[in-house]
Amino acid sequence: MQKKLIGAILAVVLFGFGGMSFAETIELLNVSYDPTRELYREFNDEFVKYWKEKTGQAVIVRQSHGGSGKQARAVIDGLEADVVTLALAGDVDAISERGLLPADWQKRLPGNSSPYTSTLALLVRKGNPKNIKSWGDLTRVGVQVITPNPKTSGVARWNYLAIWGYVLRRELGKDYVARLKNPQDPAVIAAQDKARAFITKVFKNVPVLDSGARDATNTFVQRRIGDVLINWENEILLSSNELASAGVEIVIPEVSILAEPTVAVVDKNVDRKGTRSVAQAYLEYLYSPVGQDIAGRNYYRPTSREAAAKYSKQFPKIELFTIDDVFGGWPEATRVHFADGGEFDRIYIP
Amino acid sequence: MAGAVQLRLHGSQRGAYAARTESPLVRRILIGTALMFLVLVLVLPLVLIFSTAFSRGIGVYLSSFTDPDALSAIRLTLLTAAVAVPLNTLFGVCAAWAIAKFEFRGKNILITLIDLPFAVSPVIAGLIFVILFGSWGFFGEWLAAYNIKIIFAKPGIIIATVFITFPFVARELIPLMQAQGSEEEQSAIVLGAGAWQTFRRVTLPNIKWGLLYGVILCNARAMGEFGAVSVVSGHIRGLTCTMPLHLEILYNEYNFAAAFAIASLLTFLALVTLVLKSIIEWRSARQTAFENPES
Q: Cα(A277)–Cα(A106) distance, rounded to whole angstroms?
């Protein structure tokens, strides 16, 4: 009786654990951030077909989604991602710091390893009852702002930097990028102080900090909390389509940041699993006409000229600055703003 | 002073009298309020779960379960329960037996330790295992050298579930066994029974219903656990998502019908658990009444 029971338990365990180790198909794990679910579902189907035709090999692409920072943390802790497709270079940098991929990873693919870009947009309630037109309106008393937590979410970092950059642009005028080259300039120092004060006020208006972009959308659209949601342009265009009946409107600020989500092969994992060539091909396929078209269809701004032209109508024309121009790149922005004890920790005291 | 006491007595007597002969109107209002509360808090959510699940027709409902990712989530949930429940049953019986029938040093510490999974937040429970088995964790290097995956794979999910459901059986049995004392076991041993024989013939029949009750609660939690499993899962679709995690993913993808289909299955399992629990309570009550007819 007892032996039988132990046997049965062992059988279940072995069946459960052993089942997949003899699979003939290649498995690829793509660890990604929150709003890319629809994009990669479509892209994976196409890639599986393409790879089968090209090599005859069957490949299964597994997906894991969550806040970008949280996902990077999981890869560092041992989630065996073959490729990471995260919201920002800073999160891939964190993985590379632990030696899972080389420090110059961003040079390995075109366009700083960003096959598609995006920017930020605001979502407001129908009829825009609080009359929100741009970043400047977010500090008004009585406006509740929904943005996720910059500690865990990629878009939240972009949101934060977009607002900071907007204030610098407003204070320093058209040639702000050139003037920022001289950080000792009293006007620049004054502008930075203004930006700090401004963003402190914005975060006073934030009632909840969700951990990821999709959670924030659900808070705003499903739970109907807040007056304005700052989120990915692609996420907002997608949700306004899927939730047309939810009673929300899009507002695009006239100045914003060019968000560059980045992709990379995780060397240490692909070398151990022997999946380097297919992982590399997977990311390169994102730059192909098929990949670019799928990106555009899912409201990401394609980087290839043909696809960008094809989808230009769905993206409003606005002035975009890059993180390199205004903040000196991700490592610098992370150090100054988001590291423990950085600007954000001093600004946001819950 | 005496008058005041008398007055108060009089007043309370009147109150008691009045309570017995509450006017029909007040009685109806009270019962009505209780019923309304019950409907609002318990029945309505249940109805909503099932109605949302079926909102796009029975075809969509059924196809939510034939989706490979959903099937994998159901399989993983069943596997997790199939490992966690027997392990914790075995452990629970051993621990309760030791604690209730023997005196030893450190007994109170053992009781406290058994309660630990109840006391800590499930998220912390999950993080403990990341710290132990993660790449940078205590055993990380050793596990990597032998290419053993625990965190972000099925073993991690099972270990976290075992930890969370650890106390259920033991907690159910300890008071029961303590109340029963060890006289019957002592008599059995005096009469020449061996240890195993004593356990099987004397102890086990006495704790049968309590044990089943604990197993059912343990099973319910093993299938429904979210927090700890979420931390160690890695959320790989079709591989490391249990039913509660799959439900969350579907909900976040605006796929409400499918999300609530999975929710309805989980709810259904919970309802079956509750019915089983009631049957066991009823049968054990009947058994006690049968054994002590005078009480």
A: 18
Least confident of B157-171, B185-199, B278-292: B278-292
Choose the CATH number for B57-291 among 3.30.360.10, 3.10.20.70, 1.10.3720.10, 3.30.470.20.
1.10.3720.10
Nearest CA in chain B to A78: B135
- Among A128-137, A245-254, B67-76, B82-91, whose mean pLDDT is lowest? A245-254
A37 in contact with B, Cβ within 8 Å? yes
Q: Give the closest of B83, B130, B144 to A13, CB-based.
A: B83
Listing DSSP states for A254-282 in one string gives: SEEE-B--EEEE-HHHHHHHT-HHHHHHH
**Rounded mean pLDDT, B80-88:** 95
Q: In B, which residues are within 8 Å of A9 by CB distance?
A: 82-83, 86
Chain B nearest-CA residue for A74? B234
DSSP reduced 3-state for A66: coil
Amino acid at B269: L
8 Å CB contact of A9 and B136: no
Residue matched to tokens 């990106």 = A295
pLDDT category of residue B230 using cuts at 50, 70 and 90: very high
A-chain CB neighbours of B134 within 8 Å are 77-78
